[in-house]
Amino acid sequence: MNLGIDLLPPQCDVLVVGAGPAGSAAAITLARAGVDVVLVDHHAFPREKVCGDGLIPDAHRALHRLGVLDEVMAQAQPVTHVGLVASRGGRVDLPGTLAVLPRRELDDIVCRAAVRAGARMHAPVRFVAPLEAQGMVVGARLTHGEATREIRCRWLLLASGAVPQALIAAGMARRQSPSGVALRGYLKNESMQGRIDKLEVVWHRAVAPGYGWIFPCRDGVFNIGVGVFDGRDTNLRTLFDAFTRAYPNARDLVDGGRWVGPLKGAPLRTSLEGARFSRPGLLVTGEAAGSTYAFTGEGIGKAMETGMLAAEAVLAGRGHDEASVRTGYEARLAALKPRFALYERANGINRHPWLTDLVIWRGRRSPRVLRRMSGVLDETSNPGQLLSAKGFYRLFTE
Q1: 397 or 137: which carries more pLDDT confidence?
Q2: How many Å apart are CA 343 and CA 92, to the nearest integer?
């Protein structure tokens, strides 16, 4: 699947930089429509990716559209609920269509589907800079080791993730610093399999302004980590240690478990902010465009969704000038922006964990509030409304 740089063709219709969920989703959509697609990534696949690995309903919908949901679920750990744990220990379990699959396996499945659809995958290959002619991007310069190649294309799709170097090189970065940061590791502890069988998300004063999580993978392995969406400099290892001391399940998981690899951190880009979305001949998609939600840190489903939106804009613009592609794509992202803004508003709950005590207390006592909380998970409710003045009023009147 990983063709080397020496086999890179001199030209293609669309070059996709980044073979994660966004890039591979775009490549699948384009290749199935008969477009000549070249997909490149800095790493050969399969490769590890720092993530919480949780697949919530929007990811299930995107995987279904891409035709790989059954393949993913054959390897994933199905989960029936998200357990939300408040600062003082109150808990509510929200039902949902959920699963956990490490990104090493998930991304490989989606990337292989792109290759089956007809995309040509070249890795490891590093994007250096776009090629330009008369103000338009017409290709890219790529390297591996001492080898350098140029490839011409009609469209360059930048799906390079949260690390900003590719955005900077392409002149698309409006902000180099990340929106947030996360740290996660894998622990094997078979004795905790029956005790932790839900996606656990934990708010506690010890980890404010962030939160902690424990997600069960298969075979007694757990993804455990902490995340912060805050501008201040945060020592994630200190935050992680505080989480494992403050939350009993985390403490017991660590004390009785065996680490499967080291703790690893990664930046996050959220809220469809921090990057330009397009310029002539180039579209930015996925987490490079900020496709991760603030507040929850969920980004897999929206990365695939924005990748498909970029591909659909290219397909819709065939036969038209390039400006129509850019206009169509930016309009598609603009339609998503209000929802991202509401998650940004809801991010206040991470800065003030006592709010979770209030919301979860009411959720345990009101079926209607519980349904609204579940609606946040499947995107039928807006999370920001739970924390608005009107939302607080409704908490006590429903």
Answers
A1: 137
A2: 20
Burial 136-152 (b: 16+ CB within 10 A, else e): ebbbbebebeeeebebe
Tell me the C-alpha distance between 239 and 211, whole Å: 9
- The token pair that represents 117 in the structure block: 């659809």
pLDDT tens string 97-113: 999 999 999 999 999 99
> Phi-psi bin for 270: left (phi > 0), alpha (psi -120 to 50), beta?
beta
How far apart, in whole angstroms, are the C-alpha atoms of residue 353 and residue 219?
A: 32
Task: Please report the sign of the dihedral spanned by the C-alpha atoms of residue 196, residue 198, residue 199, residue 202.
Answer: negative
CB count, 10 Å around CB of 390? 9
Residue 154, strand partner residues: none
According to DSSP, residue 191 is labeled G
Record the pTM.
0.94
Dihedral, CA atoms, 329, 117, 161, 378, nearest 10 degrees? 70
CB crowding 232-261: b at 16 or more within 10 Å, else e: eebebeebbebbbebbebbebbbeebeeee
Cβ-in-10-Å burial (0-12, 13-18, 19+) of 66 comes to: buried
Tokens of 116: 């089956």
Taking the C-alpha atoms of residue 89 and residue 370, their distance in angstroms, rounded to an integer, is: 17
Residues with Cβ within 8 Å of residue 302, at least 6 apart in sequence: 58, 291, 292, 293, 336
